[in-house]
Amino acid sequence: MKLIAAMSGGVDSAVAAARAHEEGHEVIGVHLALSKNPQKYRSGARGCCTVEDSHDARRAADRIGIPFYIWDMSDEFHQGVVEDFLSEYQSGRTPNPCLRCNEKIKFAAVLDRARAMGFDGVVTGHYAQIRDASIDGLSFRAMYRAIDPAKDQSYVLAVLNGEQLNGAFFPLGDTTKEKIREEAKRRNLAVAAKPDSHDICFVPSGDNAGWLRERLGSETGAIIDESGEKLGEHRGAYTYTVGQRRGLGITKPREDGAPRYVLRIEPISNTVVVGERDSLAITEIIGERVIWCGPAPKAAMSGADSGSARGLVQVRAHGKAIGCSYTMVGGSDRDEDRDVNGKKIRITCDEPIYGLAPGQGAVLYDGDRVVGSSTVLETR
Amino acid sequence: MKRRIYFDHAATTPISPKVLEELGREAGLIGNPSSLHFFGRQVREQVESAREEIAAALGAKASEVIFTGSGTEANNTAIKGLFWKRAPRKVIVSTSIEHHAVLDPIHWLVQHEGALHRNLQVDRRGCPNFRQLKEIVDQEGDEIALISLIHTNNELGTVIDLERISSIIGGIPLHLDAVQSLGKVNFNFQASGAISAAISAHKVGGPLGVGALLLRHGIDVTPLLHGGGQERDIRSGTLNAPGILAFALAIKEMKENFNSQVEKVKGLRARMIAIINEKVPDASFNGTGDAPGILNVTFPGTDNEASLLLFDSAGIAASTGSACSQGVAETSHVLLGIGLSESEARSTLRFSLNHRNDMDEVEYFGEVLTNVIAKARAAFAAGSRS
Questions:
Q1: Active site residue A48
Q2: Which of these is catalytic: B324, B325, B360, B384?
Q3: Bridge pairing between strands B316-317 and B174-177
Q4: Domains in chain B, ordered, with CATH?
Q5: Which domains, and CATH codes, for chain A?
Q6: Cα(A52)–Cα(A9) distance, integer angstroms
Q7: Residues in A 31-60 with any Cβ partner in B closer than 8 A
Q8: Nearest-angstrom CA–CA distance, A165 and A308
Q9: Residue A110's closest CA among A76, A61, A137, A157?
Q10: A142-157 burial code (b ≥16 CB/10 A, e <16)
Q11: Contact A38 B309 (CB under 8 A)
């Protein structure tokens, strides 16, 4: 096959490209330039967005013996990921930019371009597995968790539909990170010992709140409790996350000394509502932008809110998967192309989830297989 | 084995077999040409012969050849050196389609040394606006430290009209970036009217790492490198004797075969243009074709990021002609400078041929062209949708 290997300059994507090349595919390494003016050097433990990273990627491609190009995806990234990130925070939601990047850049803009140029798909260093599966007599390419639970990235890939999965190749899902580093060393890749990237790649300082404040302003507003009593002031509601406990800036402690948590963010009144932990518990999620990573489960699609499917739901990248039932409900007033018939999904959890914010991804699993995902619209 | 065709001779040329042999032989010589003993004398004799040969081939005096480590160093030496030497004059005149080895030292002087840059406009073919040049000279003649112009444009192949320019600028020092001229067009330093010119060995079948500044006899410039003062006290550093000898041989070979080589390249160019016109009728060509080896083509509805990759994938080496800055390929300032739009510039590729190419390679280019451009257009369309 002819494959584009997306190479960030990190160890994972380098080994992924090397493995694909070794398997006999015609592989071309591509580094995605996601900013017009990237920083020259890495600061801290990041790895994907600096000039140094693109040099590392080129060096790895040369070592593997594959051609290497830099694709300028900065406009697409800015529009599809950075702007989305800002507008989501502005609406009081908590977005996951890695999900958006996989959905709109790596397996959309890059994959579309690769396919148009005659390539069969995109190889990345994500930790997830792709295997053929068969359900109700229907065979398809399915995505499964990686064998290394600490590195499993199936959560951030659950935005890929069947068509995107057909062009997605994850050669690392069957190996632990530790072994990948050893392999990189064996392959003489200079990035073998390069630290993992964390945080959000376009926030170089790692100071998410500061970054948001710079762009969205720092208009002060009230921090109130559930009864409406004002407990303090904040400098920008979007710098708070639902479930957050520390650094709330509350001057008035509770009489019983129990900690307070952010319950919700109300962007219109610029208010942060706090309360006790129990108030964070939710058991029902209404999700929009439903994406099935393969065929939609029949039981959830039987219509008229009657049927439901069983599975597991996970709401954070490395969160716990919780038993749940889910079903498609109602129509939608938002005409999102990717929604299934403009419908939403209702996920009923077997046990409470604490601190789930609108905007987060709710990913459904059947055992280790990724069934689909949705973006949390509201919780109950 | 995949077929590989090199159409990027403006970037660098393959070293000629005879030159390679010479380089290997000379690399074994003992002796620093500055040493007074037998070994030094032996090397110095050869270096000075090489200097005389290069000078004679390019219409210069031997004492006017100052060896450097690259064309970039030669350009920097002339531009900064003349600027400093001609203080307090502050004005530097150049076009916006110069190579970065000229643009960047000028910008550096503007930022750090108070230079005033006058941007000479060019037309759609890359030819300077003579009326504007005359205006600048009339208004600021006494203030002008130097005029720096690219003789043969590296992206367009356009050669400037030196006679016209000399008649306008009078005695104001003119520096030429002639790096792309050697082997492509006739270049005679004496006749050029320039006070200095930068050249480089690897563009003409010589080795990498050797260049020269041709600097008019009796003109001193402030040096960039201080040390042993080996080259007229203008350039210090032990001379790269094997490289210099190989450079001289490369220039000699070029001179001997110049006419036949240029005729051959003209034939290849004509066929390539015919193929492109036939298979991609809406393609357009930039530049004058003065240097026949440089063929600059706009393929509408493509972006050169994709077409370059696809040509490479098909075994053909071309170039976007743009510098890769900070990881992201910049749009060519040369193409923007002649008035192409951002999208036109981004859909343009440079193919640069020399006499080592043959018709068979051009025909192969014709075989893959339709498919490459079709895929590049599909990729561009996919990009516009997302």
A1: no
A2: B324
A3: unpaired
A4: 5-12+258-385 (3.90.1150.10), 17-253 (3.40.640.10)
A5: 2-125+171-193 (3.40.50.620), 218-275 (2.30.30.280), 280-379 (2.40.30.10)
A6: 8
A7: 31, 33, 36-38, 40, 51, 54
A8: 25
A9: A76
A10: bbbbbebeebbbbbbb
A11: no
Answer whether B272 touches A (CB < 8 Å).
no
Backbone angles phi, psi at A200, to 5 degrees: -105, 125
The DSSP secondary structure of A32-97, one letter per residue, reads EE--SS--SS--SS--SSSHHHHHHHHHHHHHHT--EEEEE-HHHHIIIIIHHHHHHHHTT----H
Q: Give the closest residue to A154 by CA, choosing from A129, A133, A177.
A: A129
Closest Cα to residue B85, out of B218, B222, B224? B222
What ipTM is given for this predicted complex? Answer: 0.84
Q: What is the pLDDT of residue A258?
A: 86
Determine the residue of chain B that is closest to A52 in CA distance.
B327
Among A49, A98, A201, A324, the active-site one is: A201
Low-confidence ranges of chain B (pLDDT < 70): 1, 322-328, 385-386
Q: Which member of A48, A101, A293, A349 is catalytic? A: A101
Question: Residue B127 catalytic?
Answer: no
Q: Which of B325, B372, B386 to mutate to test the interface with A (most CBs of A within 10 A)?
A: B386
User: What's the predicted TM-score (pTM) here?
Assistant: 0.88
Encoding tokens for residue A353? 């989830």
| Look-up of token digits 């069983």 | A310
The Cα of B12 is separated from the nearest Cα of chain A by a number of Å equal to: 19
Convert the pLDDT of each residue in A56-88 to its tens digit.
Answer: 999 999 999 999 999 989 899 999 999 999 999
The structure tokens listed for B335 are: 């193409």
